[in-house]
Amino acid sequence: MKTKGIILAGGTGTRLYPITLGVSKQLLPIFDKPMIFYPLSVLMLAGIREIAIITTPQDQPQFQRLLGDGRQFGIEITWVEQPAPEGLAQAYVLCEDFLDGAPSAMILGDNLFFGHGLPELLKSAIQRQRGGTIFAYRVADPERYGVVRFEGNRATGLVEKPQVAPSRYAVTGLYFLDGDAPARARNIRPSARGELEITELLETYLAEDALDVQIMGRGFAWLDTGAHASLLDAGNFVRTLTERQGLQTGCPEEIAWQQGWIDDAQLAERIRLFSRTAYGDYLRQLLE
């Protein structure tokens, strides 16, 4: 079965108050594009065309105004409501009907990934038919994240926001899991904070030696934009790449056109929409 995608774009964004009192975190700008364009582009780079986007009921109309049904990107978007934020693993329960037994790639709506060879890395994870694949990234402040415990080169455990971290490798917000994920998520008991923890779900795979932990090396960048400083850092990072290289990061129109999911005429429609922006100029250069 083909892998389907999930973007978790719900939650209340309380760490970004007062910015997010009036707008969803995942609709905030990262330099010249809405935040959700970046995780959406990651799934598209993996070749995934069926994508469920999880939002709060009150924010969903704004997301739908931005993305519609996805046809402008040659993809199919299914909208799923999250009535209350009850943990990352809740996403698999909410998307059980959408997945219908298919394997999935779930990405958090506030995560940005960049690096040469990223599409190949993603597609290699998709080829793993059973079990799951997650990606670990070295960070200076592992106590803020879920952290991988290693014995030698083998991952032996996952610890959520440890006071004393067993390693400096944080689990990024990108998870490739097989079709068993919804059933496993249903069997998880809520944690002390009343949430279905993603680390507990992943540990069910790890206990069966069915979880592959891939380390993202120096050639990759992973940014979590859930705090004010990291939001600014992400914008500056994208601006630097764009202005230094003249290349876009997180551009779904470009990915769709290069994959052959949309044709020149469909790309030209997007160019007309953005005709007064540098983003539109960039898309125009693709055709020229």
From TrEMBL:
EC number, as in UniProt: 2.7.7.24
Keyword terms: Magnesium, Metal-binding, Nucleotidyltransferase, Transferase
InterPro entries: G1P_thy_trans_s, NTP_transferase_dom, Nucleotide-diphossugar_trans
Enzyme class label: transferase
Any one GO molecular-function label of the UniProt entry: glucose-1-phosphate thymidylyltransferase activity
Gene3D superfamilies xref list: Spore Coat Polysaccharide Biosynthesis Protein SpsA, Chain A (3.90.550.10)
Function: Catalyzes the formation of dTDP-glucose, from dTTP and glucose 1-phosphate, as well as its pyrophosphorolysis.
PANTHER family per the UniProt record, alphabetical: GLUCOSE-1-PHOSPHATE THYMIDYLYLTRANSFERASE, GLUCOSE-1-PHOSPHATE THYMIDYLYLTRANSFERASE 1
NCBIfam families attached to this UniProt entry: rmlA
Protein name: Glucose-1-phosphate thymidylyltransferase
The organism of origin for this protein: Tropicimonas aquimaris
Chain's gene name: rfbA
